Amino acid sequence: MNQQFTAAATAVSISHLDKTYDTGFQALKNVSLEIRKGEIFALLGPNGAGKTTLIGTICGLVRPTAGKILVGGHDVVTEFRKTRSMIGLVPQELTTDRFETVWDTVAFTRGLFGKGRNDAVLEKILRDLSLWDKRNDKLITLSGGMKRRVLIAKALSHEPEILFLDEPTAGVDVELRRDMWNVVRDLRENGVTIILTTHYIEEAEEMADRIGVISSGEIILVEDKMALMQKLGKKDLAIQLQEPIEAVPAALAALGLELQNEGTELVHSYDSHADRTGIATLIGTLNEHGIRIKDLSTRQSSLEDIFIGLLRDRS
């Protein structure tokens, strides 16, 4: 998080950002963040953490109380038109003119950003999103998943350099979700910077280059995904017992064992990167206390485990 980036490598630069609403609620607290060009950056946090407010301020839709945001080196407040033209935003809400056709609503959005007519660009966007066959359909006739695809098409219509996806796959079935992420990968390959918020942590784990965690309006962690998994992820050793036990013997309390599955399994968490995992000693100690082992298996902590642990530590 302390790594410095050159202007050429930075898509979005946020410095000491605060947002306090008229009610007195402080939605963002001293947020500083650098988002690199061409990366997929996932912003994770519980409901009310400030994800949507942060996106709104970067897009120039919410005026910050303090701090500075640069998009491509341009200030989002004093150069709003310039920065907004560089950004595509897919909001959570399905807000579309229900009686327009798919083609007309996407073409109209392109025009709003001052872009001239380019049917080839729009056709590619609609084909990539599997909307080409629906181009003449009125929005009112589309399913919720297809309407969300239209929102993405609208956000891409003016060929932005940066794309914000605010819970883009909420309410979308598995097949549509998979198609949308293929589009996101293609966009990244073409140099588009992607910033997404999601409740589907497995998507962030699969898709993102870096992960940011926000809680109560504060950025509590920013890390490369793989480094985060290695730094904070632990492995669980599941020890299946030949015979169930009612409780972990008091003499073994210091080992941090958790009894599960009606007393038939002990779970031991350990740092897989440590020089000594202590597993051999643990197994020997269990044998000394007459606890016979049937089988052993390990499980790597997921990003969701890490995320929940971070929030638990903050509470």
UniProtKB/TrEMBL annotation:
> What Gene Ontology molecular function terms does this protein carry?
ATP binding; ATP hydrolysis activity
Pfam families given in the database record: ABC_tran
Q: Which residues form the ABC transporter domain?
A: 12-241
Please name the InterPro entries in this protein's record: AAA+_ATPase, ABC_transporter-like_ATP-bd, ABC_transporter-like_CS, ABC_transporter_ATP-binding, P-loop_NTPase
The alphabetical list of record keywords is: ATP-binding, Nucleotide-binding, Transport
PANTHER family annotated for this entry? ABC TRANSPORTER ATP-BINDING PROTEIN (PTHR42711)
Q: Which family does it belong to?
A: Belongs to the ABC transporter superfamily.
Q: Which protein is depicted?
A: ABC transporter ATP-binding protein
